[in-house]
């Protein structure tokens, strides 16, 4: 599927067989922040959808997390025209968790976007990820096999919305934090996990119906915090799965009087939430994992080492796309989260953790990614950096996790603020060229006109309820 034919006539014919079972369709598309945008359409108007006649303002995907207006030159040049929503027919999924007044059946479809002249909107998050996958497959004859490990927090509904109303720069609203469903940082204690069993079992049934498979459910080391690793998939389907997962979990939780947030650190004195990105590369022709080489040190192939070299070459810029909010940097440089550019064999504290248990079990775990990240950005940035490593045969730094007890003056640190990470992205011309100038420009503008501006007076070195209340206004409900 190329940019000129995002949806073929064969796709439409096959899709209609599925769509005819439903009464309403959710057209969903990610914005630059990874937030779900969309429209609900009655099935009787399906032909309008198939003809790509549903639209939304093109610049909407580059607004800030709280819909802060971003000045996008390309949008201004086109007189703020609308962009077509292009349904990707192989992403149709059921939404059985929705309670409807008359038993209506609802499905969802992920969309990309084109301008009115049918030119693909290259800044769209899914488009850039799909384009990177195509380069990997066409140029290197490789496929990415990837799985995300989402962490999120569950709160009680009472006081949740109120905790987001302390707008920065205003005295209005409360600084009272939301209440986690359970309290205490007792990781893996089943006494805490059992409080979520009814919700988990209900959610698991709905997720399976939507085509999403969760490997396991566990409580993490924070109040109200769960981790739900997703079964890996090849290509863009892995990112689509996480995008749908975030959409579904929030709504399923509401059926249980719960509220879910993927904000990285919403509470004072609590640990933060991440979303590690596990991935490997597989040869299209042979079907072999090209990261694995039984004759090499650590069973790590030359391609894998070059891929690692690319990740570290571009890691400061990668951080902007993998930890894309001001609040994300309350997670990095803490005891459990990455802070340095290091990698190690099966070390859970290293920024990149290598697993090498045979061909099927050899992969890289990138731990920079926050729970607030957009899955398409994480995949696209990882692919762009890794392919540059293969292209230039880059070598990673010496293996070894950062040890604060030892003097490691040569080990580079990750950016400590979103602004530092954005500055690194601006300077990384190779990564910018690979991802596309339009995409990177829109992303940076969404940040600079959005949360960087809204939260410009926040000092993330200070962990206070006053600051976190302002960050909750920006991120708690929608990220």
Describe this structure in words.
This protein is of the alpha+beta class and 479 residues long. The chain folds into 2 domains: 110 residues, Ubiquitin-like (UB roll); 344 residues, Creatine Kinase, Chain A, domain 2 (2-Layer Sandwich). The protein has 15 helices and 15 strands. Strand 14 and strand 15 form a beta hairpin. The protein is globular, with a radius of gyration of 22 Å. The protein starts with 8 loop residues before the first helix and ends with a helix. May act as a component of the cytoskeleton or as a chaperone for the reorganization of intermediate filament proteins during terminal differentiation in the lens. Does not seem to have enzymatic activity. It holds the Pfam family Gln-synt_C. InterPro entries: Gln_synt_N_sf, Gln_synth/guanido_kin_cat_dom, Gln_synth_cat_dom.
First-to-last CA distance: 30 Å
Poorly predicted runs: none
The CATH class of the largest domain is identified as Alpha Beta
State the CATH superfamily name of the largest domain.
Answer: Glutamine synthetase/guanido kinase, catalytic domain
As for the CATH topology of the largest domain, it is Creatine Kinase, Chain A, domain 2
Question: Helix tally?
Answer: 15
Our Rg estimate from Cα atoms comes to 22 Å
* Average pLDDT level: 92
Any idea what the CATH architecture of the largest domain is? Answer: 2-Layer Sandwich
Q: Using DSSP, what is the number of strands?
A: 15
How many domains, as an integer? 2
Question: What is the string of helix and strand elements?
Answer: HEEHEHEEEHEHHEEEHEEHHEEEHHHHHH
Protein name: Lengsin
Organism: Clonorchis sinensis
Function: May act as a component of the cytoskeleton or as a chaperone for the reorganization of intermediate filament proteins during terminal differentiation in the lens. Does not seem to have enzymatic activity.
GO molecular function, one term: glutamine synthetase activity
